[in-house]
Specification:
Layout lengths: L17 H13 L5 E7 L4 E8 L15 E2 L4 H14 L21 E5 L5 E4 L7 H5 L12 H12 L21 H13 L3 H13 L10 H4 L6 E3 L5 E3 L18 E2 L1 H12 L3 E2 L2 E2 L3 H8 L30 E3 L4 E3 L11 E6 L3 E6 L4 E6 L2 E2 L4 H20 L1
Helix pairs in contact: 1-10, 2-5, 2-6
Length: 399
């Protein structure tokens, strides 16, 4: 199958007021809010904007370039969702059948009902089975300790009592929304059904067909030479650059994190989804499946707001205060329009190190913003993200 890589060039100026986007991003770098940033946007046919500003590491000399490599963490969840839905299209996975029928590790799960007066966890069987749909929509009951104090408390108890299971559900599947390790379980389902490791499945069925050659769980020395450094926000607001992480080839691959990519690569995936699952003659999903990803999968359950248990790693998360948020299969959905930016029904998510994407189907627009900063939902990184979004829509409206 021929690859369908989204074509980009530098410099690229297809929006009449793209200089305003440049100025908005450069201002954030000049103010010291972010050390460096890469941003790109596309419609269904063409890359509309690309820009790279600042440095890959504060205090160093290497400048950000459009092809800078980033750790995109949870943005791998979209790839995992696409992989699982490809197998649904083939009839090899079912959205609404018990997932334990594929992965026995999902059998005999217990729900945390609370803690007794001595702090001992109280467990009971779930009232519903975990399904692929509940995993993809984060209504399975799995929750991350980073944003769930009950998980932290339970894990502390489990460490001192080997009789307790290592992993439990925080609620009955389908009864609540909670962001957690559901997509790790989906990645394992993909491996079991396909018979190959997740990295190979991605490569053969998504990355290579789309020409996403800078995306993967491992990177080459040439790619590492283009990698951005992580920066940690100190209590005084300044940024401290970190050494590049020690990189070793993983033996296991997570459907929920741990992947590298670039803005052009990830924008290629977004453009394929904006096009109903196809790009340049290459199809990764049927249009009806892409439509299903964008449908509200959680009804009236609230989504998207998370309270941190570790402020060094993540701030509280509420990207769109006052906006009603839901979840589809793979993305968060804003039911209301965002002032100065995306339309209602847009799709979005992010990675721990402050990388972000969105797909605005109503406007025919998708975009990606990449930085490397901790904690997640860093206020100044979010301000840069919002500045890009507002400037992008102003330029689009003026075109």
């Amino acid at each position: 199958m021929a690859s369908a890589r989204l074509a980009v060039s530098a410099p690229l100026r297809t929006l009449r007021q793209s200089g305003d986007i440049d100025a908005a991003l450069q201002a954030r770098v000049d103010a010291g809010d972010v050390p460096g940033i890469v941003a790109m946007a596309t419609n269904a046919q063409d890359t509309l904007y690309q820009g790279a500003f600042g440095l890959r590491a504060q205090g160093a000399t290497a400048k950000m370039t459009v092809d800078t490599v980033f750790r995109i963490a949870s943005m791998v969840k979209l790839l995992t969702t696409v992989a699982a839905l490809q197998l649904v299209e083939q009839g090899r996975l079912k959205l609404d059948e018990p997932a334990a029928g594929i992965d026995p590790a999902l059998a005999d799960l217990q729900v945390l009902a609370g803690f007794d007066a001595r702090g001992v966890p109280q467990l009971r069987p779930p009232r519903k089975a975990v399904t692929l749909r509940s995993l993809l929509s984060h209504t399975s009951g799995f929750s991350y300790p980073l944003w769930d104090a009950d998980v932290v408390r339970y894990l502390r108890a489990a460490r001192s009592d080997p009789a307790l299971p290592h992993s439990v559900l925080m609620f009955d599947p389908g009864s609540r929304w909670s962001y957690g390790g559901s997509l790790d379980r989906v990645g394992r389902l993909v491996e079991i059904v396909s018979g190959v490791t997740l990295d190979r499945y991605f490569r053969d069925h998504i990355l290579h067909p789309l020409g996403m050659n800078d995306t993967g769980f491992t990177i080459t020395e040439q790619q590492r030479a283009r990698e951005a450094h992580l920066h940690v926000r100190r209590s005084d607001g300044t940024l401290e650059p970190q050494p590049l992480e020690k990189h070793t080839a993983p033996r296991k691959f997570s459907g929920g994190g741990g992947i590298y990519s670039t803005a052009p690569d990830y924008l290629t995936l977004l453009q394929a989804l904006l096009n109903g699952g196809s790009l340049g003659g290459t199809s990764i999903l049927h249009p009806r499946t892409v439509g299903l990803m964008a449908d509200n999968a959680i009804g009236n359950l609230d989504a998207g707001v998370m309270r941190t248990t570790n402020p060094a790693i993540s701030n509280d998360v509420d990207f769109f205060p006052g906006v009603r948020l839901r979840w589809g299969l793979g993305h968060m959905i804003n039911l209301d329009p965002v002032e100065g930016g995306r339309k209602a029904g847009s799709l979005t998510w992010a990675g721990l190190y402050n990388t972000y994407y969105w797909i605005d189907q109503a406007s025919g627009l998708a975009a990606v913003v990449m930085m490397q900063i901790l904690p997640f939902a860093d206020a100044r990184a979010l301000a840069a993200y919002r500045a890009f979004e507002r400037a992008l829509y102003r330029a689009r409206d003026a075109a």
